[in-house]
Write a structure and sequence with these properties.
Helix content is 41%, strand content 14%. It has helices at 18-21, 23-27, 46-56, 68-82, 97-108, 124-131, 156-166, 186-199, 227-232, 258-270, 278-290, 292-316, 342-352, 379-393, and strands spanning 33-34, 91-94, 114-117, 135-138, 142-143, 152-153, 170-174, 202-206, 233-237, 251-255, 321-323, 330-334, 355-356, 358-359, 370-374. Strand 7, helix 8 (186-199) and strand 8 form a beta-alpha-beta unit. Helix 3 (46-56) runs antiparallel to helix 11, helix 4 (68-82) packs parallel to helix 11 (278-290) and helix 12 (292-316) packs parallel to helix 14. The longest helix has 25 residues, at 292-316. It is globular, with a radius of gyration of 21 Å. The structure holds pyridoxal-5'-phosphate.
């Protein structure tokens, strides 16, 4: 018997939320259905809200330090959900995954150094390094040529060529991958780890979507795939996507190799980048301690949404294929069958259908012809949006 309600709509307008309240700045008009920024329109897990209100009810908001129970909640969660054994000394707080990646880019690389990414991929993987004067080397994903297996695979030969000839200092891996939600298999991850160890490349593994596994699939933390992974890897995780608490700014970083970890954690600490506000650790601890059932029900609901979108496309939208994600609430829509230019495609969604999706081209090479749809909302509203798209196409 389901305990939590994902069907009731919540009015988010007027809360200064990026997804609903900044539509005019980003899309040039209001009144669109927001299906873009990667947070969900569901009510927060009530146990998280209760923990925060309890603390907010106390009349003093002075300095706090996260208790041991906060750190233990992160360790327990990773052990129980993902079979990932971490030691307390191997984790530190960071206020966000993108900020964590920015810290790592700044600490481990110098201006002019090269960093490998695999587009189409989450756009800050390019923006952060380039904004800090680093060079991006692309190793684009390869689209599958048949109907079996994941939509994309990694170009491991291309990766080795880049490692061998262009001496990148770092690679940023998205595991599971955004957009398209692929959980990379253990063999592929191990191949990346062995190549990285052989050529001395640090691998940032962004695993922020790893808790949101759909259809009974398992997340494979990069750190667990082989000894070389533990040697080369800096993992970022967070309860923010999982429990829809991005506004609390609470993430963590895990590093096993002491040669990477010790200087990096010291630098984070002296600069006070790894000191959480009390809302960050209270929200995270409540989520990891009390949120398992909420998450199980959420992922079942999201799987239902993803299937409903896929079926709707098959039945009513010839020219648009929905790529079923292994993880998360972001569906990659392959719209190349419509035969439109990218600006024509964006016009179709925004102007004709009244829908605000992420333009696939923002994810870089290979993103043209695609749109990214956020399905993290009540199903009735989502299907109404799909109907608007059908009518726009008709
Ligand atoms: C792969 C990936 N990493 C990081 C983030 C953002 O994380 P944070 O808000 O913790 O910086 C997102 C949000 O969409 C994401 O998709």
């Amino acid at each position: 018997m389901a305990k939590y309600d994902f069907d009731s709509a919540v009015e988010r307008r007027g809360t200064d939320c990026v997804k609903h309240d900044t539509l005019p700045q980003h899309f040039g008009c209001d009144g669109l259905v927001p299906l873009w920024v990667a947070d969900m329109d569901f009510r927060v897990c009530p146990e998280i809200a209760e923990a925060l209100s309890r603390r907010m009810g106390h009349p003093v908001y002075g300095y706090t330090a996260p208790p041991e129970s906060y750190w233990q909640s992160i360790l327990r969660w990773n052990r129980e959900r993902h079979g990932l054994e971490l030691d307390r000394s191997e984790i530190a707080f960071v206020p966000g995954v993108v900020r964590g990646i920015a810290y790592a880019v700044n600490f481990f690389t110098r201006p002019g150094d090269s960093i490998v990414i695999q587009p189409p991929v989450y756009h800050p993987f390019r923006i952060v390094p380039e904004g800090n004067g680093r060079k991006i080397i692309e190793n684009p994903l390869i689209e599958r040529s048949d109907d079996g297996g994941p939509f994309y695979r990694m170009d491991l030969e291309g990766l080795e060529r880049i490692f061998a000839t262009r001496s990148p200092r770092m690679m940023i891996l998205c595991n599971p991958h955004n957009p398209c939600g692929i959980q990379w298999d253990a063999e592929t991850l191990a191949s990346v780890a062995r190549l990285a160890a052989r050529y001395g490349v640090i691998v940032i593994s962004d695993e922020i979507h790893g808790d949101l596994m759909l259809g009974g699939k398992r997340h494979i933390p990069f750190l667990t795939v082989c000894p070389e992974a533990a040697e080369t890897c800096i993992t970022f995780g967070a309860p923010s996507k999982t429990f829809n608490i991005a506004g609390l700014e609470s993430s963590w970083v895990a590093v096993r190799n002491p040669a990477l970890r010790e200087p990096f954690f010291r630098w984070l600490e002296v600069n006070e980048f790894s000191s959480p506000s009390f809302t960050s650790w209270i929200g995270a601890e409540a989520a990891y301690t009390h949120g398992a059932q909420w998450l199980d029900e959420l992922t079942e609901y999201l799987q239902g949404n993803a299937l409903a979108v896929k079926r709707f496309c098959e039945e009513h939208l010839p020219g648009i294929k929905a790529v079923m994600p292994d993880a998360s609430f972001l569906v990659w829509l392959d719209c190349r069958g419509l035969g439109l230019s990218q600006s024509g495609l964006v016009d179709l969604f925004v102007r004709d259908a009244g829908l605000a999706l992420n333009d696939g081209s923002m994810f870089g090479t290979g993103g043209e012809g695609f749109m990214r749809l956020n399905i993290g909302m009540p199903r009735a509203g989502l299907m109404k949006a799909m109907e608007q798209l059908r009518q726009a196409l008709a």
